[in-house]
Amino acid sequence: MIDLTINPKQLERAVQRARERDIIIPTFAQMKDPKLVPGEIKARLKGVGLWDVNSLNLFRITWKNEPTAQGGGFGGVNYVELPSSLTGVPARIIALVGKWFPTGAHKVGASFGCLVPRLVTGQFDPTTQKAVWPSTGNYCRGGAYDSALLACESIAILPEGMSKERFEWLASVAGETIKTPGSESNVKEIFDKCWELRNSGQDLMIFNQFDEFGNYLWHYEVTGHAMEEVLQQVMGPNDRYRGMASATGSAGTIASGDYMKQLFPGSKIIASEALQCPTLLENGYGAHRIEGIGDKHVPWIHNSKNTDMIVAIDDNAVVNISRLFNEESGRAFLVEQGVPEKIVGQLDLMGFSGISNVLSAIKAAKYYEMGENDIMLTVLTDSMELYRSRIHEMREECGLEVEIGAMLFVAEGERRAHGNSNVRVVTLGVANRQLRRAQRPLERVHQLAVGQKAGVPGF
């Protein structure tokens, strides 16, 4: 769990650094309810941009930021409900929106949950140590950003194949950015670099999101409560909360499902991953293009025994749907098909992992035959603001002439797969425990995680 051992001398230096830089650290309670933020800080935030490197933006690590880039205050949880005309299912699919966090992604909260406990206990000394943030994308961005706000030196590590926007932004925020071989699937190479840094003699601390319970705890507390508030706002007397869907990634976001299951014991937790790298689904591995979901391993903080279903999403569907949602001709087509213009105008709130999460929620809704009074929740971890270069790359690769035909062919193929095939689904329930030992998916996933913890360098 989280070590709260106090190092008095280093804590004294951390407090002195915070005083010198006028740094005030918010509480989880303030993140859950910004009404608790002091009025003076709210007034000062009116002159601060959402992405500015200003310690006041620590108070904007919340789901409740006003959706504006400059000087915004606080409101309710940012979310969007996707209509049946878009999802193809009668169930209500509702997604929390991560775009309105500083850095444009909710991972800034997870990294806060990892770094701050070390600061306030004196375990991390901002005057001498560097914070190392290994990630396949948004976590290292969030870590570098939080480090800058908290006056800490940082090193960001991520695969060289990640989007151009990530590297351009990190160049201005992180103290150092290290590119490792590969892309989203190449997590091991990130931790190889961590071992290299650990053995270099530098005074540093590696914040491994895959086994940092601060990552889990922040999402359990803050994201979980945000989901609860959305339900309180949208549920009618006949509605039922059925579950939440999330890519496993670092197993931070999916922790909100554990919180929700305590409130709604009959609800489901849907873990998803790329079809091209079906680690949980069938102990497989491979490369894919759904940036932001991680894979080829089971995070040590993943509460796999509380997971009800594993689904796999084809990265071709995600990539092509991203074009459908963000090309002018694709949006025009959706309006012609009856999708409300207001919703079409909000589709850029979904980045690659957000699209994958929505597809996972749809898949679960179809599998469990959910109706119009059933609610599935999911999370849009970031937006297309971080993937614009990918749209340009796809235009160059595929051209504009064939875009609608190609996008719809792949998207419709994924949609049909959701409805007509269980090949990409594994349920993890009581019935599985009645099968012979070798066939129990839940036990297999748990043992995969335990074996990995024992044998993979960097964990």
Please give the structural blueprint:
Elements: H1 8-20, H2 28-32, H3 39-45, E1 79-82, H4 84-87, E2 92-97, H5 107-120, E3 130-134, H6 138-149, E4 153-159, H7 164-173, E5 176-180, H8 187-198, E6 204-206, H9 213-234, E7 240-247, H10 255-263, E8 268-274, H11 279-282, E9 309-313, H12 315-326, H13 328-336, H14 341-344, H15 352-367, E10 374-380, H16 388-398, H17 403-420, E11 425-427, H18 441-455
Parallel strand pairs: 2-10, 3-4, 3-6, 4-5, 7-8, 7-10, 8-9
Antiparallel strand pairs: 1-2, 9-11
Poorly predicted ranges: 416-422, 433-438, 453-459
Query: Compute the gyration radius: what is it?
Result: 21 Å
Under the CATH scheme, which class of the domain at 80-101 and 222-426? Alpha Beta
Mean pLDDT: 87
Briefly note the structural class of the backbone. alpha/beta
CATH fold description of the domain at 80-101 and 222-426: Rossmann fold
Strand order of the largest sheet: 1-2-10-7-8-9-11
Estimate what percentage of residues fall within beta strands: 5-15%
Q: What characteristic shape results from the CA principal axes?
A: globular
The helix tally amounts to: 18
Number of strands: 11
Terminal residue distance: 15 Å
Order of helices and strands: HHHEHEHEHEHEHEHEHEHEHHHHEHHEH
Helix content: 40-55%
